């Protein structure tokens, strides 16, 4: 099921406004169901009833009880295609849109979708604490240029709030006001917010009553309220596209090789990009399933903001290769076999490359004598943008000869 205009799924809708939702039946494998069915659609409002009890040593215990109430029920006929229906939340609060039917064998099928209606009404939310403001974002990941919509679930009936956009420091601050306990904050996601930003909301309540005696709980004392939401922002604007273009995919041992490295951004070449290129024997790397870390994932790891950069300085484990004696016999008029002696796992390492005006950097090197597959890694960096890619190429002889004994021998066989 989905709601919202133009097919955009949103959990936030306005109270007393007609909303349109779409649904369709699919199998557990994701295939469309073409048969007809009768589907019951329910709009359920979820409320929370609170009660406070005085405990030992003057402690006040708050208990929340969930109450679900069906606001609207309708039956729609499904005919194998996307089905649209309308519903209207009559007041602000938390809702469940439930669709239910039975399959061909009479088994019950139920799908729930949670959504929130915003408006001026005051809603009692089941917050984790009496002073908590719940902030719910409408997406798990935003792109630069998006508008983040944040649902505010406040224990206050209305009031003013200090809104701050934070990370290493305060990016933005302003006073926002809401009539009712449910409102929506909007934040334009910018380049400065990559890869994560935090939106905080702070408010307070004046004293509402005075305790009758020193031994009674002071429930009307001034209170402070706080909530924070995490806005995850895509790093797409900080990513470069890197391509590894070898002169050919299969080479002979000891042969010269040329690799072109191409760096682009949005299809355009990136000049003067600093690059690192290396190729390592997969036989060594696969011993510990090692891949060169992607710098983008490290420098733009959300865990690095706001706390600290926690990384490690990894080093490859280079193992001494095992070599065997090679026979120097030859037959016919063939050339003498070349002894393979260079089995260095690191075929090439170029830490100081730069792309030209076409976004190309060329690397020329001689391959070791190992018959193996090499994993090539290229890393590019230009300003605050990073590119990373991996590729493979094969080194082998045109013809390989090995001795094979028969499975069975008879007397006098030669």
In short:
The protein has 414 residues and is mainly beta. It has 2 helices and 24 strands.
Task: Describe the protein.
With 414 residues, the chain is mostly beta strands. Helices cover 2% and strands 48% of the residues. It has two helices and 24 strands. The longest helix is centred in the last third of the chain and has 5 residues, at 295-299. The chain is elongated.
Mind sketching the topology for me?
Blueprint: E1 2-3, E2 12-14, E3 19-23, E4 37-54, E5 60-78, E6 83-87, E7 93-102, E8 108-118, E9 134-137, E10 147-153, E11 158-166, E12 170-179, E13 182-188, E14 196-205, E15 223-232, E16 239-246, E17 250-251, E18 256-265, E19 268-269, E20 274-281, H1 282-285, H2 295-299, E21 346-354, E22 360-366, E23 372-382, E24 385-395
Attribute tags:
24 strands; five-stranded mixed beta sheet; nine-stranded mixed beta sheet; 414 residues; 2 helices; elongated; mainly beta
Global structural class: mainly beta
- The average pLDDT value, as a whole number, equals 81
Strand content: over 45%
Largest sheet: 9 strands, mixed
Give the termini distance in whole angstroms: 77 Å
Oligomer: single chain
Order of helices and strands: EEEEEEEEEEEEEEEEEEEEHHEEEE
Record field, number of beta strands:
24
């Amino acid at each position: 099921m989905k709601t919202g205009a133009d097919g955009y799924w949103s959990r936030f809708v306005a109270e007393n406004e007609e909303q349109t939702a779409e649904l369709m039946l699919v199998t557990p494998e994701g295939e469309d169901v073409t048969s007809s069915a009768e589907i019951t659609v329910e709009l359920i409002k979820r409320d929370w009833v609170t009660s406070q009890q005085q405990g030992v040593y003057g402690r006040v215990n708050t208990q929340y009880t969930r109450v679900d109430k069906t606001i609207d029920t309708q039956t729609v006929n499904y005919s194998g295609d996307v089905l649209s229906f309308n519903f209207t939340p009559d007041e602000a609060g938390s809702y469940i849109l439930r669709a239910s039917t039975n399959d061909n064998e009479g088994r019950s099928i139920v799908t729930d979708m949670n959504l929130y209606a915003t408006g001026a009404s005051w809603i009692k939310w089941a917050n984790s604490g009496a002073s908590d403001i719940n902030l719910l974002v409408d997406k798990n990941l935003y792109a630069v240029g998006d508008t983040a919509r944040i649902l505010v679930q406040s224990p206050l009936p209305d009031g003013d709030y200090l809104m701050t956009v934070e990370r290493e420091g305060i990016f933005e601050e302003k006073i926002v006001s809401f009539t009712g306990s449910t409102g929506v904050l909007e934040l334009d996601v910018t380049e400065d917010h990559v890869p994560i930003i935090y939106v905080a909301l702070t408010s307070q309540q004046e004293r509402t009553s005075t305790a009758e005696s020193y031994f009674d709980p002071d429930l009307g004392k001034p209170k402070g309220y706080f909530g924070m939401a995490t806005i995850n922002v895509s790093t797409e604007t900080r990513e470069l596209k890197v391509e590894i273009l070898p002169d050919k995919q299969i080479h002979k041992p000891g042969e010269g090789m040329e690799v072109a490295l191409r760096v682009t951004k949005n299809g355009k070449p990136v000049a003067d990009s600093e690059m690192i290129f290396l190729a390592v024997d997969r036989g060594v790397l696969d011993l510990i399933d090692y891949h060169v870390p992607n710098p983008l994932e490290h420098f733009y790891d959300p865990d690095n903001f706001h706390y600290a950069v926690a990384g490690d300085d990894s080093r490859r484990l280079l193992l001494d290769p095992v070599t065997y004696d090679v026979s120097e016999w030859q037959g016919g008029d063939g050339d003498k076999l070349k002894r393979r002696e260079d089995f260095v796992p690191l075929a090439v390492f170029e830490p100081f490359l730069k792309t030209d005006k076409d976004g190309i950097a060329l690397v020329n090197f001689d391959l070791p004598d190992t018959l193996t597959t090499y994993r090539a890694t290229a890393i590019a960096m230009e300003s605050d943008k990073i590119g990373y890619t991996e590729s493979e190429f094969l080194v082998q002889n045109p013809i390989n000869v090995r001795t094979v004994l028969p499975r069975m021998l008879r007397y006098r066989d030669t």
